[in-house]
Structure formats: structure tokens, C-alpha cells
Amino acid sequence: MWIVFIGPPGAGKGTQCSRLVDTLGIPHLSTGDMLRNTERNSALGKLVESYIDVGRLAPDYLVMPIVTKRLFEPDCQLGCLFDGFPRTVHQAEQLDEFLAQRDSRIDVVLNLQVAADVLLERLLKRAELQNRKDDNEQTISARLEVFRTQTAPVLQHFRGQGNVVDIHGDQSPDRVFNDILAGLTGRK
Ligand code: AMP
User: Fold this and answer.
1) SS3 content of the chain, % helix, strand, coil (to 5)
2) Residues 12 and 169: beta-carbon distance below 8 Å
3) pLDDT value of position 136
4) Does the global pTM surpass 0.85?
5) Percent of all residues in the chain with a pLDDT value above 70, rounded to a whole number
């Protein structure tokens, strides 16, 4: 099963993705993790960091090769959970094309929705707890703005394919997870 998980920063995607991969037993492809794991001291790592640190999207020429290389690995032949990808309509189109070549398509797009003021509050709390360099107030606003302008259109792209399931993210993690499972079951 090919699943895309979309949600603004702070929506609780990380928590739900871990639970989902445990339950479904499919690989978890977090482009944020993959980009953060780029060798820190390499020229590539420094370039990637320069985008992450200010909350801007890394360019497709950096992101797409990392994703496609991963998709050729044996565990990704039958499906995976995309987390933080695609983040632009262009990435979505490239993903569609890649899967079409394998006679596949995205089965479900989970759209985790949380109100903007709740997101900001959650992200500032996470900044205190996790010491993530891109969780300061300025970068958080930049990331929320990037979500609104560049990633929200990805949802429209997938709505056109009729595979989006909206999930109400402002409830307890258990309830959110139950809604996700119900959404997936309804689609299978
Ligand atoms: P995340 O961990 O998903 O919140 O991603 C952290 C940062 O990594 C983002 O703010 C972007 O700078 C970068 N990033 C992650 N995924 C992508 C993507 N699909 N395209 C471009 N940049 C990305």
C-alpha cells in the first residue's frame, strides 16, 4: 500500500507515522529524517542544512534523488508510508510518474488537520523539549507559511485523484490513530 501522510509542522505526524508503520509493517520514508541524516560536514550536508535551518524547502534536485534511490531498495517494492513528501505539486507529479512506471499509484493520502493556533503552541513546546534547531519562532512561522503556500496545493492535486482522507488532528493521539485506521480500512 502506498500512503502519503500530509500535515503541517506540529500536527503530530511523527507520532502517528511510527504507530502506523508498526501496525502496517511498511517502510517509513521521512524526507526530513533523510535530509537531516545527510553527512553534516559534507558540502551537500551544509547545503541541505542551510534550507532546513531557515524553514525553507530543499530544492527538488536534492530531494528527488534521495527519495528515488530509497524507492529502489528491496523493502520498498510493494509500498511505503511517505512522511513529509511530496511537499510541492512538482514532487507529487514526479512521484505519480515514478509509481505509474511500476503500475502503481498512491492509494491513500492522509490529511492531518490542526488549527493554526494549536500548531504554534505545540511547536513552541516541542522546541523546548527537543532542541531542534528549526523549532524557533521565526523558523516555525516560515515552515507554516511554506506549508500554506507550497504544500497545501499538493492536497488539491491528490483531491483530484479522489484518494484524500481528512483526519481531525486536534484530539488525543489514540483517537487520531483510530480515525486513521478507519480511514485506511474504508479505502482498502
Ligand atoms: P520535517 O522533518 O518533515 O518537518 O522536515 C524538516 C525540513 O526538511 C523541512 O522544513 C525542509 O527544509 C526539509 N524537507 C523535508 N522534506 C522535504 C521535501 N519533501 N522537500 C523539500 N524539503 C524538505
Assistant:
1) 55, 10, 30
2) yes
3) 79
4) yes
5) 98
- Mean of the per-residue pLDDT values for the chain? 92
The secondary structure of 172-188, three-state, reads: CHHHHHHHHHHHHHHHC
Report the distance separating Cα 130 and Cα 76, nearest Å. 30
Residue type, 44: L
Is 10 in contact with 122 (CB distance < 8 Å)?
A: yes
Residues with CB under 6 A from ligand 1: 9, 31-32, 35, 51-52, 55-58, 63, 84-85, 87, 91, 134, 143
| pLDDT tens digits along 97-125 | 999 999 999 999 999 999 988 888 888 88
Please tell me the residue having the least CA distance from ligand 1 atom 10.
55
Number of helices followed by number of strands (H, E) in the chain: 9, 5
Residue 188 in this model has a pLDDT that exceeds 50? no
- Dig out the grid coordinates for 72 from the structure: 529502489
Architecture of domain 2-181: 3-Layer(aba) Sandwich (3.40)
At 113, which amino acid appears? Q
Q: Is 37 helix (H, G, I), strand (E, B) or coil?
A: coil
Task: Give residue limits of the domains in the chain.
Answer: 2-181
Q: Is pLDDT of 159 > 80? A: yes
Query: Which residues sit opposite 113 in a β-bridge?
Result: 168
CA atoms within 13 A on the CB side of 40: 1
